[in-house]
Amino acid sequence: MAKLLLLEDDSTFSKLLFSFLGKHGHQVKVCTTIQQAKEELANSKGDESPYEVLMLDYRLPDGNSVDFLKGIRKEGVRIPAFIMTSFQDVRTAVNAMRNGALDYITKPVNPEELLMVLGEALKKSQAGEVPAVVSPAKGKSKPGTQDNIEGRSAISRELYEYVRLVAPTDMSVIIQGESGTGKEHVAKSIHKLSKRSNGPFVAIDCGSLSKELAASELFGHKKGAFTGALQDKVGQFEAAHGGTLFLDEIGNLGYDVQVKLLRALQERIIVPVGSTQPVKVDVRLIAATNEDLMANAAKGDFRDDLYHRLNEFKIEVPALRNRGEDLQIFVQHFVDKANAELDRNVQRLSKEVMEVFGRYDWPGNLRELNNVIKRLILLSKDEEASLSALPSEMIAALEEAPKPTGSNLKAIQESHEKEMIERVLQEVRYNKSKAAKLLNIDRKTLYYKIEKYQIE
Ligand SMILES: Nc1ncnc2c1ncn2[C@@H]1O[C@H](COP(=O)(O)OP(=O)(O)OP(=O)(O)O)[C@@H](O)[C@H]1O
């Protein structure tokens, strides 16, 4: 259940939303004027359960909600917000997003779209990405506190030294590392430590963008630009104005989009699809990849000029198996997190489990560790989590080779990965989207692995 503030002067519509959201378990407070909403926010400051999302109608009797949002953001209120507008005016939407709205939806409101946008806003709120109310001193959370573990190994210390070094500059950064090593986490740390930390952090998974829609997603489009472009759409570049745009799996972007991206970086303008009007943007770009982009550029799969423009600074995020003593620290962190999420009280992992963890190769890195620990905590009834709650494939991988080293280890890891993919594909009757979701990788990576392992 979430606590929501709805600012809406149309009483029929607000009653509808009130009951619809109530049925979905949310607690909604309706305000009909900006003044009332300001008072409500002021009165709720310091409440034990603060508002988690603001849902704002655009036009109100005493002003518009974009100005309202601008005002409260200046005062340090960071509750995620989205705008609902009957005016299909792209400028309103851009303006709203520049002033701290996460998204906008047009009226008449489609219930599924509403729930989706609300769900995204709640995720941000719960992940603490937009803290409920920020006082200037508390606004920036530093890497190394709460949700961000830096680690103590030499390789991790070097990683965060680079993060601190590059963060305050406006340089583009390429973050390279295996899947699940924490590249997005590193990008967020750079953003939080930068001068743009009060601006938006917008993350896009380029691997999940279709070739046709990538340009529209990044740069926006005009109504009628292509079949299905039913209204103007603001792209993520504009949404990230004043902040940081994080492009994950950048190697998956098509050639045409790479050209546009280069122009956006060089000239700081973008042109929405179907428009002739350039739009100025002020965005810092951070790109992540788990492939060797330089090799791709040499092969001609990635534009050389774009690679060099992005590569003003490169950061390598180490694989978990190379982080030595950090494993213990991450284990503790994920155990605490899982206990809190699942309402459990597992105090420790048994010696045998820790031994397996130490020998295992962690092909899925921190994401895999997090998932394995969550499962352990869920299945453990006692204070100590034991071997029986570990996935059998993990044990099998280790039993096949008592203590594998070097290339042998790689082969075992790959055969383990192949088996896992085959099993999941069978389970979901070869629905690749579902399989990718279950395996926690993007579809492009799944296709790549299917081809690599010649899975029929
Ligand atoms: N420094 C960190 N401290 C705590 N948790 C972390 C850290 N880095 C990563 N994680 C957790 O590990 C998981 C994977 O992190 P993230 O999504 O950043 O990896 P990634 O390398 O971007 O993944 P992909 O290659 O799939 O895009 C997430 O659940 C994240 O919360």
Automatic annotation (TrEMBL):
<dbReference type="GO" id="GO:0000160">
    <property type="term" value="P:phosphorelay signal transduction system"/>
</dbReference>
<dbReference type="GO" id="GO:0043565">
    <property type="term" value="F:sequence-specific DNA binding"/>
</dbReference>
<keyword id="KW-0067">ATP-binding</keyword>
<dbReference type="InterPro" id="IPR002078">
    <property type="entry name" value="Sigma_54_int"/>
</dbReference>
<dbReference type="InterPro" id="IPR058031">
    <property type="entry name" value="AAA_lid_NorR"/>
</dbReference>
<dbReference type="InterPro" id="IPR009057">
    <property type="entry name" value="Homeodomain-like_sf"/>
</dbReference>
<feature type="domain" description="Response regulatory">
    <location>
        <begin position="3"/>
        <end position="122"/>
    </location>
</feature>
<dbReference type="Pfam" id="PF00158">
    <property type="entry name" value="Sigma54_activat"/>
</dbReference>
<dbReference type="InterPro" id="IPR027417">
    <property type="entry name" value="P-loop_NTPase"/>
</dbReference>
<dbReference type="Pfam" id="PF25601">
    <property type="entry name" value="AAA_lid_14"/>
</dbReference>
<dbReference type="GO" id="GO:0006355">
    <property type="term" value="P:regulation of DNA-templated transcription"/>
</dbReference>
<dbReference type="Pfam" id="PF02954">
    <property type="entry name" value="HTH_8"/>
</dbReference>
<feature type="modified residue" description="4-aspartylphosphate">
    <location>
        <position position="57"/>
    </location>
</feature>
<keyword id="KW-0805">Transcription regulation</keyword>
<keyword id="KW-0804">Transcription</keyword>
<keyword id="KW-0597">Phosphoprotein</keyword>
<dbReference type="GO" id="GO:0005524">
    <property type="term" value="F:ATP binding"/>
</dbReference>
<dbReference type="Pfam" id="PF00072">
    <property type="entry name" value="Response_reg"/>
</dbReference>
<dbReference type="InterPro" id="IPR025944">
    <property type="entry name" value="Sigma_54_int_dom_CS"/>
</dbReference>
<keyword id="KW-0238">DNA-binding</keyword>
<protein>
    <submittedName>
        <fullName>Two-component system response regulator HydG</fullName>
    </submittedName>
</protein>
<keyword id="KW-0547">Nucleotide-binding</keyword>
<dbReference type="InterPro" id="IPR025662">
    <property type="entry name" value="Sigma_54_int_dom_ATP-bd_1"/>
</dbReference>
<dbReference type="InterPro" id="IPR011006">
    <property type="entry name" value="CheY-like_superfamily"/>
</dbReference>
<feature type="domain" description="Sigma-54 factor interaction">
    <location>
        <begin position="149"/>
        <end position="378"/>
    </location>
</feature>
<dbReference type="InterPro" id="IPR001789">
    <property type="entry name" value="Sig_transdc_resp-reg_receiver"/>
</dbReference>
<dbReference type="InterPro" id="IPR003593">
    <property type="entry name" value="AAA+_ATPase"/>
</dbReference>
<dbReference type="InterPro" id="IPR002197">
    <property type="entry name" value="HTH_Fis"/>
</dbReference>
<dbReference type="InterPro" id="IPR025943">
    <property type="entry name" value="Sigma_54_int_dom_ATP-bd_2"/>
</dbReference>
